[in-house]
Design goal:
5-stranded mixed sheet; 27 strands; globular
Length: about 425
């Protein structure tokens, strides 16, 4: 599909809705699971399983951004609440396996001849960033290396891998499919900027994937929009694609936001037309002794009702989704210096009651512990000058009313 970018239209309401932090808790950075491995990165995404009263949390490709050995998994976490204190407890880690039953790896793919992300020894590479629980109890997991959408049983067994449309597949400057970092990617998803958010529509038949930044043909990190992709799970075909516009300034403030520093990191279904989207900057506790201050970790209410499905039409003035601010986390806490950089997971903890919602919000701590334990080995991790814990907030918020705001033109991005 050829992408045509023009003056995308946007409606944003900057009034922060009524929000209350009900409880907060942390998980030490050196906690280990039943496999003896350091538990980190589990804030990359999460979903609440009411049947077991646990959260299924997704860890990404592991410490060191895919340079250290790691077996991708999801982690079951039970979170107890005592007043305003949350206590997260590890229940179990479950490893993901490929179609042949082999453990997958989080290492960066190095086989340039393979038509899927693989190591030269044949292992399947997986960078899981988001997780959703289907009505039949199976799990859907996004993969940034592909990008792909995987389906697994809860015991980690492979069911299927869904390929995303041609426009999203990474191609190098020779026009070839390339999952390695060896050549510049000029088409498809940017490196490490794939499907960061995942949710299912209420009937469980359609998956909604939210991409971290724009496609390379849209301008990559410089694009003022990214993409929401709807996949029919029965046919494995795309049925819709909408454009999501990044914020240009911190809500209720005058500080400008640079689009190349922003990312979309999770999406949560409210109904067929409305979703919550977690959008953030890269500032906050990131392992350095003196990190930059967290300023923008926002949850937005979006509506696709009036947006243009660009799979069906790509007019010069296609309309993006409309978005209204629900809350910006740094504005709610007493000291934003304590916040992690990578807030990447939101999950409903109860069905919405009218405009009132209750969320669990969590951050990816990037495995920032001085010593990483994995598969019986120890790895010093110099990036962890600050041992960053896993952080969890339980938040009650009131969704904003429909504002009827008029759209405003966004700047043109690269062709």
């Amino acid at each position: 599909m050829k992408m045509i970018l023009g003056a995308w239209l946007l409606a944003i309401v900057s009034l922060q809705a009524k929000t209350e932090i009900q409880a907060f808790g942390e998980m030490p950075s050196d906690v280990r699971d039943q496999l003896g491995d350091t538990v980190g990165g589990i804030g990359s995404g999460l979903v609440y399983d009411a049947k077991s009263d646990t959260f299924f949390c997704i860890a990404d490709r592991g410490p060191g951004d895919g340079t250290l050995p790691y077996r991708p998994r999801y982690v079951k976490v039970r979170i107890k609440q005592d007043g305003k204190k949350l206590t997260p407890e590890i229940v179990e880690s479950v490893l993901f396996r490929d179609a042949e039953g082999r453990e997958m790896t989080g290492l960066i793919p190095n086989d340039r001849q393979a038509d899927t992300p693989r190591m030269k020894d044949g292992r399947t590479c997986l960078d899981p960033e988001a997780i959703a629980l289907a009505p039949d109890g199976t799990l859907y997991v996004t993969d940034e290396y592909g990008p792909y959408l995987y389906q697994f049983q809860q015991d980690g067994k492979f069911i299927r891998r869904i390929m995303l449309p041609e426009a999203f597949r990474p191609k190098n400057d020779s026009g070839k499919l390339d999952f390695t970092p060896d050549s510049p990617i000029i088409f498809g998803r940017n490196i490490n900027q794939g499907p960061e958010g995942l949710s299912l529509l209420p009937d469980g038949k359609t998956a909604v994937l939210a991409f971290q930044s724009g496609l390379m043909q849209q301008g990559g990190r410089q694009s003022p929009v990214t993409n929401l992709l709807f996949i029919d799970l029965a046919t494995e075909k795309p049925v819709a694609q909408y454009l999501y516009p990044f914020a240009t300034q911190i809500p209720d403030g005058d500080r400008e936001l640079k689009v190349e520093r922003l990312s979309v990191n999770d999406i949560l279904t409210l109904d067929d037309k409305r979703f919550l989207v977690l959008e953030r900057d890269g500032a906050g506790r990131d392992g350095r002794e003196e990190p930059s201050l967290a300023r923008y970790k926002a949850v937005w209410l979006i509506d696709i009702s009036n947006a243009t499905n660009v799979l069906e039409s790509t007019p010069e003035d296609a309309k993006s989704v409309e978005k209204q601010l629900v809350f910006n986390l740094p504005a709610l806490v007493p000291d934003a210096k304590t916040l992690s950089a990578k807030w990447e997971g939101i999950a409903l903890t109860a069905p919405p009651q009218g405009r009132e919602i209750e969320l669990m919000m969590t951050a990816d701590n990037d495995f920032l512990s001085p010593i990483i334990h994995h598969d019986g080995q120890e790895y010093p991790f110099p990036r962890a000058q600050d041992a960053v814990p896993g952080q969890f907030f339980k938040i009650k918020a009131e969704l904003p009313e429909n504002s009827g705001a008029q759209p405003a033109a966004l700047p043109k991005s690269k062709q």
